[in-house]
């Protein structure tokens, strides 16, 4: 049995590994920067750092195996949901499927375009990848929905894992009190 203490970050790379606003890789890199900064309270045991790196030119099966190893060692998944995530029909759906169906880990759905507390996740349904929507609808996904804000993401990473799921099934949200404690008003 794998030691599951990592956080797996899934994002739509939009066919690139180059930062610059064309994909959600910028948000992943921001999370890595938060975690790497010694004066920052944000810490994340990044599952992507635990497995051998693979290049984009690697064979598809090699990539799948590497992603599976990373997921196997993860306690939760942060799913970065941006403008193009719903259109991803490749890796993000694969990652969601394995995280929920095989490894039974909760998802922290974090929305890049949201600054205010998320109180009605279904209002953001058009942003969801089909794999996430299907698992929310069939009751197999355990998801907390938060804006892409450091304090909310950090709390969810520290709180949810394979033995502690967010309340609300696939439509979990934080209370107004929690949002106030994160310094997020709305």
Overview of the molecule:
33% of the residues lie in helices and 12% in strands. Strand 2, helix 3 and strand 3 form a beta-alpha-beta unit. The model is unreliable at 47-54 (pLDDT under 50). Strands 1-2-3-4 form a 4-stranded parallel beta sheet, with helices on both faces. The protein has 6 helices and 4 strands. The N and C termini lie far apart (43 Å). With 186 residues, the chain is an alpha/beta fold. The protein has one domain (6-12, 23-182): Rossmann fold (3-Layer(aba) Sandwich).
Specify the CATH architecture. 3-Layer(aba) Sandwich
How much strand?
5-15%
What is the overall shape? globular
Order of helices and strands: EHHEHEHEHH
Instruction: Say how many strands there are.
Output: 4
SS summary, helix count: 6
Short structural description:
The protein is 33% helix and 12% strand.
Give structural attributes:
alpha/beta; 4 strands; Rossmann fold
Detail the topology: elements first, then pairings.
Layout: E1 6-10, H1 25-36, H2 60-72, E2 74-81, H3 91-102, E3 107-111, H4 130-137, E4 143-147, H5 150-159, H6 176-182
Parallel strand pairs: 1-2, 2-3, 3-4
Helix pairs in contact: 3-4
């Amino acid at each position: 049995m794998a030691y599951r203490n990592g956080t797996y970050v899934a994002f739509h790379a939009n066919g690139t590994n180059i930062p610059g606003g064309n994909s959600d890789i910028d948000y992943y890199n921001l999370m890595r920067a938060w975690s790497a900064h010694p004066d920052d309270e944000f810490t994340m045991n990044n599952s992507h750092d635990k497995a051998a790196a693979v290049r984009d030119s690697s064979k598809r099966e090699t990539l799948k195996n590497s992603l599976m190893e990373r997921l196997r060692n993860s306690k939760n998944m942060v799913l970065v949901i941006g403008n193009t995530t719903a259109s991803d029909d490749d890796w993000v759906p694969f990652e969601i499927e394995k995280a929920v169906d095989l490894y039974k880990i909760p998802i922290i759905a974090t929305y890049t375009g949201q600054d205010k507390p998320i109180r009605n996740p279904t209002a953001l349904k058009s942003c969801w990848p089909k794999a996430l929507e299907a698992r929310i609808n069939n009751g197999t996904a355990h998801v907390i929905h938060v804006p892409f804000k450091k304090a909310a993401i950090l709390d969810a990473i520290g709180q949810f894992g394979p033995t502690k799921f967010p309340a609300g099934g696939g439509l979990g949200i934080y209370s107004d009190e929690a949002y106030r404690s994160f310094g997020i008003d709305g």
